[in-house]
């Protein structure tokens, strides 16, 4: 009887072990996630990062693994370019002190970008006189905080650096003809600050403010 009981227990143990093995989920290997191969911007530089007014410089770049490469300035596209190249730029033509050039490289796995900033070193203050008239009488506050006057033909400009905080800025121009228009502008650090325009015989346009 004892042998029968032991044999029965052995059979039961084998049954439970075989059931447990059959219920187990096979260990299926997880395939590795494919690695992305994004474009590589090896270099993106400007020969000069600060330029004088109307001074030019070059952007240069080297990029690999890109299907499309686009150059832009302050968010405006300048077109597609080759993976290795250079371009001559004149930031002054845009009339802005801060110019951020961006290179966007794209392929089927995604995109990357690089940026270069070029600063235009505008004078602190610039007066401009223009218009359809060709003869004007100009009065303006000069660099030394005095007043200067001159007869001139349009267009006329006067620039200076080293302006003091709160320094008075002033320019007026009187048309010396019996018809035509005259326009005066004040720029601070390359940005338009004040503007005035008048039309007619011997009219005066005046702009003023402080630095």
Q: So, CATH architecture of the largest domain?
A: Sandwich
Strand content: over 45%
The H-and-E topology, N to C, reads as HEEEEEEEEEEEEEEEE
**Cα separation of the termini:** 114 Å
Backbone CA Rg: 37 Å
The gross shape turns out to be: elongated
Please work out how many helical segments DSSP would assign: 1
CATH topology of the largest domain: Immunoglobulin-like
Provide the number of structural domains: 2
What class, by secondary structure content?
mainly beta
Unreliable runs: none
Helix content: 10-25%
- Give the averaged pLDDT, no decimals: 89
Can you walk me through this structure?
- The chain has 211 residues and is mainly beta.
- The protein is 10% helix and 53% strand.
- The protein has two domains: 40-121, Immunoglobulins (Immunoglobulin-like, Sandwich); 125-210, Immunoglobulin-like.
- β4 (68-73) and β5 (76-80) form a beta hairpin.
């Amino acid at each position: 009887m004892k042998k029968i009981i032991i044999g029965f227990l052995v059979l039961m143990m084998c049954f439970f072990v075989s059931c447990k093995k059959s219920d187990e989920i096979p260990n299926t290997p997880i395939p590795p996630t494919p690695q992305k191969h994004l474009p590589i911007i090896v270099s993106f530089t400007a020969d000069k990062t600060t330029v004088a007014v109307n001074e030019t410089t070059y952007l240069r770049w080297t990029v690999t693994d890109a299907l499309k490469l686009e150059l832009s300035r302050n968010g405006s596209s300048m077109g597609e370019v080759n993976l290795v190249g250079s371009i001559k730029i004149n930031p002054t033509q845009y009339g802005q002190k801060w110019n951020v050039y961006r290179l966007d490289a794209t392929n089927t796995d995604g995109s990357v970008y690089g940026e270069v900033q070029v600063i235009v070193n505008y004078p602190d203050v610039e007066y401009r006189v223009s218009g359809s008239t060709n003869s004007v009488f100009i009065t303006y506050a000069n660099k030394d905080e005095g007043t200067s006057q001159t007869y001139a033909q349009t267009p006329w400009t006067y620039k200076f650096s080293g302006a003091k905080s709160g320094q008075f800025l002033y320019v007026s121009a009187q048309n010396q003809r019996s018809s035509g228009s005259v326009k005066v502008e004040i720029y601070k650090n390359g940005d338009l600050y004040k503007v005035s325009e008048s039309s007619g015989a011997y009219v005066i346009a005046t702009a003023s403010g402080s630095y």
